[in-house]
């Protein structure tokens, strides 16, 4: 299905095909903005310390499972109409409202600064969320290619997702894949792959590129960047903690987003 060479580049075959996943970490703000404008995705290396990773993992386990069953608010994105739940691709939003470790992340001044630099002005917190791929679910844990803005309807599409790996994300356990430059092509056609499927799937001729990420690294993508993730074929979970920032002034379905907090206020404890 794939080969990974010594310098960390990963070449994909099968549905997500051969492409060069060079390390697109960038140091300077202008370099980062240029890379983001070109690719629609950049890497923020080592965003979480080992202690923060541990704290977030514990928070995620508490938020997702109660007595071995999915807790309140957990959704199964692999759900299909008329079939028993697979619990293969679990999702939960707004953990920061009740969890200390998540609340600390969304109030991080350094993250706010980087998000503001990338989006070019003050930002609001749209949500945090977690994607959880348990082991042993095979292809059902795949996330189909999509643009986030097909769900969120943000206008203008000035928003970023900061996707933080809580486990080493590899091709084997379902790391994220991006279609580089796809954010520049506006709305892409999506179809529902199966009746009752939760996620709609983008139609594109372009090849996605696998972005493996060690635990603690973040991948930052535009709300219009096409992305998906492979199945978790490993024997451990693949978890990610995600924060979504929206530039102040952006509307959602034509409505102002003033009920979403300004991140500057969260940073100052407001
Ligand atoms: O974590 C994944 O597998 C999917 C991530 C994703 O779709 C997102 O962050 O928008």
- Could you tell me the number of beta strands? 20
CATH class: Mainly Beta
Note the main sheet: 7 strands, antiparallel
Task: Determine the fraction of residues in helical runs and give it as a percent range.
Answer: 10-25%
Shape-level CATH architecture = Sandwich
Number of helices: 6
Beta-strand content:
25-35%
Q: How would you describe what is shown here?
A:
It holds the Pfam family PhyH. InterPro entries: Phytyl_CoA_dOase-like (IPR008775). This is Putative oxigenase. It comes from Streptantibioticus cattleyicolor (strain ATCC 35852 / DSM 46488 / JCM 4925 / NBRC 14057 / NRRL 8057). One of its GO terms (molecular function) is 2-oxoglutarate-dependent dioxygenase activity. The chain has a single domain, classed as Sandwich (Jelly Rolls), CATH 2.60.120.620. The strands form six sheets. A seven-stranded antiparallel beta sheet has the order 3-16-11-18-8-7-6. It has a four-stranded antiparallel beta sheet with strand order 9-17-12-15, with no helix packed on it. The model is unreliable at 1-27 (pLDDT under 50). The longest helix is centred in the N-terminal third of the chain and has 15 residues, at 50-64. Helix content is 20%, strand content 28%. The N and C termini lie far apart (49 Å). It is globular and about 45 Å long. By secondary structure, the chain is an alpha+beta fold. The protein has six helices and 20 strands. A hairpin with a 2-residue loop joins strand 19 and strand 20. The site of 2-oxoglutaric acid (AKG) has 10 residues, from strand 11, strand 17 and strand 18. 2-oxoglutaric acid is lined by residues 131, 143, 148, 161, 163, 176, 227, 229, 240, 242.
